[in-house]
């Protein structure tokens, strides 16, 4: 098992999406009916979405950011589990539309927003969540291998650049005591992920795992990232005189919570 197998499996899944996902269809997962739009990752062709969605420790009454929401199953589920505020982001326009369609279908548009964004770029500095999660595109491809279509982003991360940015930027979008999770698998490059985690002064632990016999054997892993021993999450305050600029500052938690930047079109 490993990176080679991961690449083969992801290529096969991408091909299946390209060939068989030309029309909208519906599928059943977690006892509910969902819409799937063309060009969006199919949550019913691998167990990954269902496993992570049922394992996440949703912050009841709190806020949840789903990175890369795809069809929106996890984001909608979070809203149904009692999250007060859910934000779903995806780099793919089709995924954002699909997430909104499923939010409407399940009656959670009052507390779920979906936006197109390359990772955290659409967020205002200082916008924080109790839990941030990404079921990531954990198959690493060479740096030179561009993701040619939006759908490629669902599977491949060239040189783990998106993973690097996720680990670097997510901490600034967590409430004090907020949790940062990553949905990963044995098809990913664990050595590289560990290096990126250490580079950011973080450490990772396994919250839950499950092995499934697909065409290849895959272990699905829900990982939690925390500041490495002896450190805390970076404390960020916003310099309101320079809009959009972020000045790392030590602040008491109450002051941190009230730091409310004005970020133009940002969320
Ligand atoms: C493995 S799919 C998971 C989809 C969905 N969450 C699920 O579980 O069915 C990964 C998702 O991350 C999105 N993604 C990849 N790179 C991204 C980026 N840089 N910014 C935002 N979303 C990204 C993809 O478009 C895709 O929808």
UniProtKB/TrEMBL annotation:
Biological process, per Gene Ontology: methylation
GO MF annotations, alphabetized: peptide chain release factor N(5)-glutamine methyltransferase activity
GO CC annotations on file: eRF1 methyltransferase complex
Pfam families: MTS (PF05175)
Entry EC no(s): 2.1.1.297
CDD domains the UniProt entry points to: AdoMet_MTases
Protein name listed in UniProt: Release factor glutamine methyltransferase
């Amino acid at each position: 098992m490993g990176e080679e197998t991961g690449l083969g499996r992801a290529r096969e899944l991408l091909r299946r999406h390209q060939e068989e996902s030309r029309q909208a269809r519906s599928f059943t997962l977690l006892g509910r009916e969902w819409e799937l739009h063309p060009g969006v990752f199919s949550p019913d062709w691998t167990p990954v979405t269902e496993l992570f969605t049922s394992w996440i420790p949703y912050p009841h009454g709190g806020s949840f950011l789903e990175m890369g929401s795809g069809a929106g199953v996890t984001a909608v589920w979070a809203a149904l589990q009692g999250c007060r505020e859910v934000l779903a982001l995806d780099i793919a326009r089709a995924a954002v539309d699909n997430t909104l369609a499923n939010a409407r279908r399940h009656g959670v548009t009052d507390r779920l927003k979906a936006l197109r964004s390359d990772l955290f770029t659409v967020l205002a500095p200082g916008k924080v969540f109790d839990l941030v999660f990404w079921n990531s595109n954990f198959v690493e491809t060479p740096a030179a291998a561009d993701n040619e279509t939006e759908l490629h982003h669902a599977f491949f991360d060239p040189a783990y650049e998106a993973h690097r940015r996720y680990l670097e930027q997510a901490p600034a979008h967590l409430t004090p005591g907020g949790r940062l999770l990553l949905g990963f698998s044995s098809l990913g490059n664990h050595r590289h992920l560990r290096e990126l985690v250490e580079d950011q002064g973080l450490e990772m632990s396994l919250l839950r795992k499950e092995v499934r016999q697909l065409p290849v054997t895959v272990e699905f892993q829900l990982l939690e990232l925390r500041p490495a021993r002896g450190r805390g999450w970076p404390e960020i305050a916003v310099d309101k005189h320079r809009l959009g600029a972020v000045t790392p500052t030590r602040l008491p938690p109450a002051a941190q919570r009230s730091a409310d930047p004005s970020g133009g079109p940002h969320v």
